[in-house]
Amino acid sequence: MQSAVCPGSFDPLHNGHVEIIARASNLFDEVIVAVSANMNKRPRFSLEQRIEMARETFSYVRGVSVVALSHGLLVDFCREVGANAVVKGLRDDRDLLYETPMATMNRHLSGLETVFLPADGRYSHLSSTLVKEVHDLGGDISECVPRAVQRRLTESLR
Ligand code: ADP
User: Fold this and answer.
1) DSSP H helix total and E strand total for the chain
2) 28, CA 20 to 30 Å: which among 21, 81, 126, 155?
3) Which residues are catalytic?
4) 37 CA distance to ligand 1 centroid (A)?
5) Per its UniProt record, what InterPro entries does this chain match (predicted)?
6) Average model confidence (pLDDT) for the chain?
């Protein structure tokens, strides 16, 4: 069985992430969405909320599960869950420059491969930061995020 990990902070999950995870699920028997607990900046949503939104979004997608990535190296997490690869979406050359050293390091550390999928043109402008900013200023982000996320974003402003 071939399984892949899609790691990220998902603060919050948006349709660019959803599209990459859906495409990963067409390539692998099992996809584990790993929501990272440790972030450089304070997250808008708690780890539990970020996991809950992702679980709600993927509840009907076969082969996709959502778990916490609490500590330690990604390569160790992948070994623990038996994943063969990491899948990452690339929006542009900045993503490529940022992701390539990490992918190479992971391969050197344990042979773990990273599969890069080009972002779909419909979503390549999306980032969690931009989605939050537009939403907080009153913009319509209904086409940018899953319904579970839109609800939580609205609640977070109350
Ligand atoms: P980070 O881990 O840098 O906080 P995110 O959690 O937002 O990034 O995203 C996790 C991964 O999802 C990123 O490493 C990137 O591969 C991918 N990604 C982010 N935004 C998009 C997008 N709009 N389209 C495709 N892939 C994306």
Assistant:
1) 6, 5
2) 126
3) 17, 41, 91, 128
4) 15
5) Cyt_trans-like, PPAT, Rossmann-like_a/b/a_fold
6) 96
